[in-house]
Amino acid sequence: MAKDRTTVFFCQNCGYESSKWQGQCPGCREWNTFAEEPAAPKKIRAGAGAAKAGLQSREPVLLADVCADESQRTSTGIHELDRVLGGGIVAGSLILVGGDPGIGKSTLLLQVCRNLAKSGRKVLYISGEESASQIKLRSQRLDRQEQDLLVLCETNLEIIRQVLEKTQPQIVVIDSIQTMYSDAVSSAPGSVSQVRESTGVFLQIAKGMGISVFLVGHVTKEGVVAGPRVLEHMVDTVLYFEGDRHAAYRILRGVKNRFGSTNEIGVFEMRDTGLAEVPNPSEYMLNGKLENASGSVVACSMEGTRPVLVEIQALVCRSNLPMPRRTTAGTDFNRVSLLLAVLEKRAGIQLSACDVYVNIAGGIKMTEPAIDLGLILALVSSYKDIAVDEKLIAFGEVGLSGEIRAVSMPKQRVEEARKLGFSTVLLPEVSVRTVGSVQGIRVVGLKTVREAVRFIS
Questions:
Q1: Rounded to an integer, what distance in angstroms lies between the CA atom of residue 311 and that of residue 360?
Q2: Helix (H) or strand (E) holding 231
Q3: What is the CATH number of the domain that holds 170?
Q4: How would you write 46-75 as a 3-class SS string?
Q5: pLDDT tens for residues 306-361?
Q6: Which range of residues forms the domain containing residue 216?
Q7: For 35, what's the count of Cα atoms within 13 Å in the CB-facing half-sphere?
């Protein structure tokens, strides 16, 4: 007789299950991701599981009869977070918040809990990493006014389910999902099986009881949430904190959102009293810009519906190495290499023997093609040691033929530049008609890279 399997192998990236170890995962094609774990017990049939979870019988309904009222969203009391969520918290949603250690995940969610409790909603903060006294100390540091916030320090899923059924909160925060465990799974907390099982339990609770659940997720050294990739597919919204935890700013970006756009970002500043909103990130990113410095150009990128102005810095110098250095920070390395080739071929500027360093000031990451024109101008400015007018801003996509192509929402970009006191804007010529005339700012349309180079020379 065949023996029952006591252990199986799971892919730590996608959750693929195999009876033996494999070098490459057949599911996600990643290498060396299989880990051995105890086999999960047999699951109960779907019908009984639905009845046990308290779910209604599955009967089809007309889509026209489904009620979907946007006014049912709950504001977190933090405008930047509401923007990323798409307008607020949707009842019964499952939200995953990831980020590096110490970047502010627990701090932000504790501030959200305090705001919601202050507005009269029943909020439960479940911690598997901190004691109640530690949470109290952190809460006092953020705000000394005490609120009706429920706190539970527990990691057992069965006990947590009983507490939720008894207290019936409206908002629940789980800090963190990697510390939760179920007695039905014999593997250790934080393993692929436990993380997947725990997320499945909270998914049933969120949808079955109509509770909005925030999950805090640890990240790996690659910057993704630890555990199987299926974890991100199970939740409704995935939010990531970006930025250096030693810097003052934090950027909250939505990479998945079933209830809103994934292009919005929220900008925060870390203070001793917690995370404070930055209502005008453009002004914040341009703080400290040096006047009359070569290799520095301001460009405009769109993050959802919000235009963000950033300073692009470039340093071009002669190289003594057989293979010159190419270093980028805050933008795509391959995109910079492409623009260097366009400058050599279409503008006649020889950069093959030069070291090139490109940086987006402020540490923010920008990958939109609209910053191509700003990158081109910064590289030429540094190469020729010519300072670009500090009141000049540029945006536009650069093609391989050296043409400057149109980008989305040029009107909003020009209006943002005018608000911050810029006097000249360089943009694709095809976008000039869309922008029209804007009082207080000079609009210059460009067709090719050669025209852009001649303008600053």
A1: 6
A2: helix 230-234
A3: 3.40.50.300
A4: HHHHHHHCCCCCCCCCCHHHCCCCHHHCEC
A5: 899 999 999 999 998 989 999 999 899 999 999 999 999 999 999 999 999 999 98
A6: 72-279
A7: 15
